[in-house]
Amino acid sequence: MQLSEQEIIRREKLNKLVEMGINAFPAEEYVVTDTTESIKHDFSESKQVKIAGRLMSRRIQGKASFAELQDSTGKIQVYFNRDEICTGEDKTLYNDVYKHLLDIGDIIGIEGALFTTQVGEKTVLVKNFTLLTKALRPLPQAKTDENGVVHDAFNDPEMRYRQRYVDLTVNPQVKEIFVKRTKLFNAMRTFFNDAGYFEVETPILQSIPGGAAARPFITHHNALDIPLYLRIANELYLKRLIVGGFDGVYEFSKNFRNEGMDRTHNPEFTAMEIYVAYKDYNWMMDFTEKLLEFCATSVNGSSESTFGEHTISWEAPYPRVSMTDAIIKYTGFDITGKTEQELFDFAKSIGIDVNQTMGKGKLIDEIFGEKCEGNFIQPTFITDYPIEMSPLTKKHRSKEGLTERFELMVCGKEIANAYSELNDPIDQRERFEDQLKLAEKGDDEATGFIDEDFLRALEYGMPPTSGLGIGMDRLIMFLTNNPSIQEVLFFPQMRPEKTVPQIELGEDEKVILEILNSQEEPFSLAEVKERSQLSGKKWDKASKTLTKHNLVKVEKIDEQVLMKLV
């Protein structure tokens, strides 16, 4: 393993700690009685506290030092004084361990007393400290210059998503996104449970990928010697439970779709689906808008949220617009009664990229997606989808060729999909067969299977039912003002990380790194060059090698050229 100079130095410090008999990774429990938040909330002078967290900064001034400790609830200032920590003749704990063997990023436990500094800062006076974990890699540290400009912030999206553990540590505001995500799930559960509905779990590995039109991930079960699919949706299993006698079931499911990745799509995502017996899509619209108003208020304390330049009102009720009327409004074209060829020709005429594998449903979906979706900013129900787009939906009770389906659009994106569920097994078989024909035609998102067991379940009788699916990742994007799905997933899917090239450093490069490692603040370029005592030719070669491999950085701040470690 190729280590950076700083990583080597930290391992050397670890060895020195071991030699001193200090375990840098102790196993015993460290009893914490307080948090930074509880201290600030219930502060009293001289109160004894015991906290633990990560050392985030420090300013050593001889026998005293102010530092900052960060735990899961926030940050607090701590004050290290040699004579308070080392009351006897032996000053090793402060002089050697604290000053020279601890680093920014180390996790420590602190016992001390509270006091307020002369400038009014709530502070912990350290009486004793314990090393709980030695950090062997340095945290990225942002610095603010005298003009208020931040340098070296850990803000590269790819690095943040790959190393979310670092992102959460040095960008604590990111944690609030995931706190709100959990609040959303809890609020939704509360709403459903209070309504009397039952949370369930259904299979992730499925013998038939059903319940949606999407390309699945395929795996193989060795013992059974059969292919299995990671679920693309849990719909058909939840409906089986309605057949089995549950009046209302819901599930937060991890779904997997082997499709493209972009700012609103991740191959692994979380959906919520709920099915309620004896209801229809009109009831479900009323239920959905009340649900989302409740969730928005629970997450943000308000029925409004900001997304980009828009203020979204989640307060019920929401407008209801049929898909046919939406397409007429934004294209002037009435899809009612049109043949597949007429839809294809119209889509081509308005510049939509379509091909011969697309059936009527896919063509209508492309027209709506390209020309209509982006116009719906405030929550709006798009209703009454053509039958070709909705293989699991009941035919409309009064409108020929349409189904009782709605999607909820917000800021041009769909976040919810719901039906009056199809419970006629004969009609359902015909819809499956139509999907099979599209799959044979080349539509790789059409369902290429007929789920005979699901049809058998319907033949036993499923009561009239309405179902709703909500994309939880996309919903929390809107509630936290994040335009990228990667921001609301702890660990989004990423391309394989590039291999870091192995770097052989010469003595000249090591001299420069040793100088830069001697203090936490950057040096002036001239000072490093002078202290290295390298000739001009050797200096040029060594500094170029270090900057080329991104080990050091040279930048100009306020007319001064600085060199520092990356």
Helices and strands in order:
Elements: H1 5-19, H2 36-41, E1 48-61, E2 64-71, E3 74-81, H3 82-85, H4 92-101, E4 107-116, E5 122-133, E6 143-144, E7 150-151, H5 157-162, H6 164-170, H7 173-194, E8 198-199, E9 205-206, E10 218-221, E11 226-230, H8 235-243, E12 248-256, E13 268-277, H9 281-300, E14 304-307, E15 310-313, E16 320-322, H10 323-331, H11 340-349, H12 360-371, E17 380-383, E18 405-410, E19 413-420, H13 425-441, H14 452-460, E20 465-471, H15 472-480, H16 507-517, E21 523-524, H17 525-532, H18 536-548, E22 552-557, E23 560-565
Parallel strand pairs: 3-5, 8-12, 16-17
Antiparallel strand pairs: 1-2, 1-4, 2-3, 4-5, 6-7, 9-11, 10-11, 12-13, 13-20, 14-15, 17-18, 18-19, 19-20, 21-23, 22-23
Helix pairs in contact: 7-9, 7-15, 8-14, 11-12, 13-14, 16-17
What does this structure look like?
The longest helix has 22 residues, at 173-194. The strands form six sheets. An eight-stranded mixed β-sheet has the order 8-12-13-20-19-18-17-16, with helices on both faces. The chain has a five-stranded mixed barrel with strand order 1-2-3-5-4. It has 18 helices and 23 strands. β14 (304-307) and β15 (310-313) form a beta hairpin. The protein is of the alpha+beta class. The model has no long low-confidence stretch (mean pLDDT 93). The two termini are 19 Å apart. Helix content is 35%, strand content 24%. The radius of gyration is 31 Å and the shape is elongated.
List keywords for this structure.
566 residues, alpha+beta, 8-stranded mixed beta sheet, 5-stranded mixed beta barrel, 18 helices, 23 strands, elongated
